[in-house]
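## Example pair
The file below holds two records. Each record gives the amino-acid sequence first, followed by its structure token line.
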Amino acid sequence: MDYLGIEVLPVRSSFAVVEGEAPMARKKSLWSELQGERERWARIALAQQRTQRQMLRQMVEDHDRAERRAARAEAAERKRQEQLPTKRGHRLRRP
């Protein structure tokens, strides 16, 4: 049976009475199953955090790269603009 994506096991006795004691009849205790689920969720959370850190780092790198590219483009345009009057001046002197 499935409830909200969680498998629900049928209810049955997990203890058997033997000579006045009640040893566990299950191979795996409910506590160890719960602990396993907690560890699994912890691993999932760590993986999500790692993915988020990687995405954030990539976004920062992309932003920095775009800023450097824009700065280079601005510097190239300034240099081109500075050289325009010089080229025009050379053209005017030639004839």
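Second record, same layout:
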Amino acid sequence: MNKKNVVLLGKGSLAIKVANWFFENENLVAVVPDMPEPTWTDSLAEWAKSKNVPYFNLMTFCNGGSILLCFMLMVTISSAYILI
């Protein structure tokens, strides 16, 4: 069976549990954690670093960041399965 490409958007412990499942069972392309991340829950960005999964701060790319990078990220997201 072909693995699906997945970009996961979210925050906290639940997002990390879901990310672990996709990491083990599908092709987790990247994660987009809520930024700034809340201090009251686990960090999705730290989890991504520990698994060598790319992560993006959408605010950096799309608010005053590179229009081209924002567009590329949106194309990647639109061609993958998304969890919010």
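Notes on the second record: The chain is about 45% helix and 20% strand. Residues 3 and 26 are 5 Å apart (CA to CA).
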